[in-house]
Amino acid sequence: DLAAARHWLDRAEQVRPDYPKIAATRALLAVREGDTAAALEAIDHAHRLAPDDVEIAVNYGAILIQRERFADARRVLQTALRASPSHTEAIYNLALADDLAGRADRAAYGYGRFLALASHADPQRARVQQRLELLMGANVPAAPAPVSTAGATTASANDSERGSAVAAPSPESREGTHP
């Protein structure tokens, strides 16, 4: 019940108004309700309260992606990855931001990194595998949806299981490509 969740968040905020997880939870609630403007405001507040919190940064990046602020998402997610280099949700969302910004080289590298580090049971794995294969083959339809640390995509997409992993070269290693 979203109304009950909002009620408990209001009560918690009265007790601890500067606790970043309250603002972060409020942001996730706003996303669930489809209000990405309110979500962005809440997650920005949470991020200012806890700039080193990787979970908050990953959710901030996901919301920035939804708002089509790909460069801002890239900046936030890169900072999160400096603190936690193997955080698969941050890696995935960074690759997605690059993909949606039209940077197929960076996106392919990020998706390849995600596949190398993610659990074989990760629900995003099949979608990422499929997307990477498309990027590597030049048939490039729409990118998948961002994920939050809550583990759910913020938009639905059709999943299909595919076979082996495809590795992508680092965009920095390709001649003539600039990060």
Binned, the helix content reads 55-70%
Number of DSSP strand runs: 0
Total helical elements: 8
> What general form does the structure show?
elongated
Series of H and E elements? HHHHHHHH
User: If you average the pLDDT, what whole number results?
Assistant: 83
Which spans have pLDDT < 50 for at least 5 consecutive residues?
A: 152-179
Structural class: mainly alpha
Task: Explain what the structure shows.
The protein is mainly α. 60% of the residues lie in helices and 0% in strands. It has eight helices and no strands. It starts with a helix and ends in a 42-residue tail after the last helix.
Structure keywords:
8 helices; 0% strand; mainly alpha; elongated; 179 residues; single chain
Task: Explain the layout of strands and helices.
Layout: H1 2-15, H2 20-32, H3 36-49, H4 54-66, H5 70-83, H6 88-100, H7 104-117, H8 125-137
Helix pairs in contact: 1-2, 2-3, 3-4, 4-5, 4-6, 5-6, 6-7, 7-8
Outline of this structure?
The chain is mostly helical. The chain has helices at 2-15, 20-32, 36-49, 54-66, 70-83, 88-100, 104-117, 125-137.
